Amino acid sequence: MGQAKTKTPYELIGGEETLQKLVDAFYPKVYSDPRLAPLFQGDMELIKEKQRLFLTQFLGGPPLYSDRYGHPMMRARHLPFEITPSRAEAWLDCMRQAMDEIGLTGLIRDYFYERLKLTAYHMVNTDEPGS
């Protein structure tokens, strides 16, 4: 008897199609959020593409981000930007809204969101103004 293949979170979430929908729903929210907009002044299409590549790899899919840009080193790549706890929460709010918009539900959503939550708070590198 052969062993059943365990699916990756990338496969369970719906792969490239779902991640593209998520990124497409997410970034207009980010760019219009007054807490986040100052951090996202570049080409939205390029940022969306990098995010899709990263999330693919983050969820156990092909290493598309590393293949194109090298090791993600996400904290180091985000150090030039003032990421406060409230900005991390704003980013997560936008992600929750995007997940709702595309109808991402269930255990895979919970798992994915919890991993994103850990990552978002790991990116914090600046105290709140006035702290």
Automatic annotation (TrEMBL):
Domain of life here?
A: Bacteria
Q: GO MF terms on file?
A: heme binding; metal ion binding; oxygen binding; oxygen carrier activity
Q: Which UniProt keywords apply?
A: Heme, Iron, Metal-binding, Transport
Q: Which cofactor does it need?
A: heme
Write down the PANTHER family for this protein, in alphabetical order: TWO-ON-TWO HEMOGLOBIN-3
Instruction: Give the family from UniProt.
Output: Belongs to the truncated hemoglobin family. Group II subfamily.
Tell me the protein's name: Hemoglobin
Species whose genome carries this gene: Insulibacter thermoxylanivorax
Q: Show the taxonomic lineage.
A: Bacteria, Bacillati, Bacillota, Bacilli, Bacillales
